[in-house]
Each structure stands twice: as C-alpha cells, then as structure tokens.
Design a protein that fits this description.
Elements (H helix, E strand, L loop, with lengths): L7 H42 L1 H18 L8 H22 L8 E4 L15 E4 L5 H5 L1 H4 L5 E5 L4 H10 L5 E5 L5 H12 L3 E5 L10 E6 L2 E6 L1 H9 L3 E9 L2 E10 L9 H22 L17
Helix pairs in contact: 1-3
Amino acid sequence: MTEPNAHWAQRRERGSFWMMKLTAVGVRLLGRRLLSPLIYGIVLYFFVFGRRARQATRQYQANLANWAGQPALRPTLGSLFGQFMAFAQALLDKLDVWNGKLRLEHIALDDPFGVRQQLRGERGQMLVGAHLGNLEVCRALAELGEKVTMNVLVHTRHAERFNRLLGEAGASHLRLIQVSELDPAIMLQLSQRLERGEWLAIAGDRVPLHGGRTVTADFLGQPARFPQGPWLLAGLLKCPVNLFFCLKQQGRYHVSLEPFAEAITWRRGERDQVIAHWAGRFAERLGQRALSAPRQWFNFYPFWNLDND
C-alpha cells in the first residue's frame, strides 16, 4: 500500500508512538510549563496545514448542531480551532497521567451505580469508552484507585512499544493488548485474564485496520461505521459491559461510569442484529455525552465517510 492511500489509522499509529516518545522525553527534560508552547505550536501547524482534519472536525460540529437542534454549535473558524486547542490541552494532561502527577483527588468520579466497587470482583468485566475527552485519565483509575489490572485492547501493531513506555512511566497495572484479529489464542488469553479478575477496556468508536468487522449505526443523525469488536467480545467472553467517559469541565476531569449491558447474547443467525442493536445504543449514548463537551471529540478523520478505508 502506498503512503498516500494508506488507511487513516495506519498513518495515525505510525505517528502516535513517536509522538508519545517525544512528549514523554520532552516533559522529563523541560517540564509541562516549558513544553506547553511547543505542543501548542505543533497543534497550530496541524490546524493550518491539516485540511483533512479541519474538514472532519467541521463535519462533526455541523452534525452535532443539527442533531441537537442547537445553531450555536455550528462550526466557525473559532470553534474549529478551539477543538484543536482542546486536543492540545488533552495531550498535556496525558503527560501528567503518564508521569504520575494526576492523583485520584484531582478527578471527580460520577458512579451512581457502584461500578468502581466491582473492580475488585472475582471476575473482570469490560469497559467501553470513546475518543471523547481523555481516555488516559480513565485508564489512570487502574493505577490510582483500586490497583486492578486494566488491559487496554488496541488495534495498533506497536502495542509492545507502548507497553515499554508505560513501564518507563511507572504504570504497572496498565497493559496494551493488540486485538487486530480475534483468533483462538487471543480469546483464550482474554478469558483467562477475566477469570483472574482483570478488566478489559476498549474504544467503541475506533474502526480497526485492514477491513475489520464494522457495523453501521446512526450517529448524530448520520450513518457512521462503528467496530463490532466490543460487542462481539462481550458476547463471546460472556462478561458484563460498562461505559466510561472522561470530560474536562471547569478545569477538572469528570469520570463517569455506568453499566450498559449485563449480558450480550444471541441465538443462531441473530448475531449481526444483536451487535447492530448494541452499537446503535452506544452511538446514541455517545451523542448525548458529546453534547456535554462538544469540543472534546478527538476523532480527526472523516468519521461519517462509509467508503473511507
């Protein structure tokens, strides 16, 4: 595959590891205060020259405004740049997570159903999040709170490199696991981890590489592709599913935990319909959460382009 035609996620994952590496080194050498102008400069560069990312952000803001019936949310140059700047702030906050500067008392936890108390249960469960807000802060709960092992399921082929970076930052209860293919070996490994009381975390809005299984669902009034993975895994592993979001409001992160599906089951011939049902419910909940922090949607690619590879 040539570089210009590469899948958006392939291009993103090639840059993600080195971005993490450089920022991790930079914060150790310079500290957050000195590194901030550099991060903002990089984001400004991508805003000016990243036409594709700007178009994707404009599409998101327009869809959100129309779906919610709120003209004030319609995209402007200022709102587009504001979303890029929110992403820069989230990057800097990630550095605080990796370097242990963000503590549990700095996070407001919204857990009316007691999901956190279940983290120390005999068998693990699944957490499904999204690229809305800051996923790293949610994952920090594994390190700062109950000290439960959190296995973050990712599509990147650089999982082992990311794990080394996490280890260097002192994250001993957090591990990335590549799940590009749900083969018997990976399914057995995940099942064993659940039986040991470990938890699984996965993004419900990131389409996998290489034509992985997807399902079309209505999101903000338009059809979009969502991964089948979270719902397929939950059904095969027979584990409950919870949702988790982390949005920054008034300078403080608010983490919300909520039960989503006690069990995902299907009869012969019904699997696709059941997965589509849960993906649709997730898309609806994601839209509702996006209204709480409309500038914190950090999927800078054409999310609603069904032909996008």
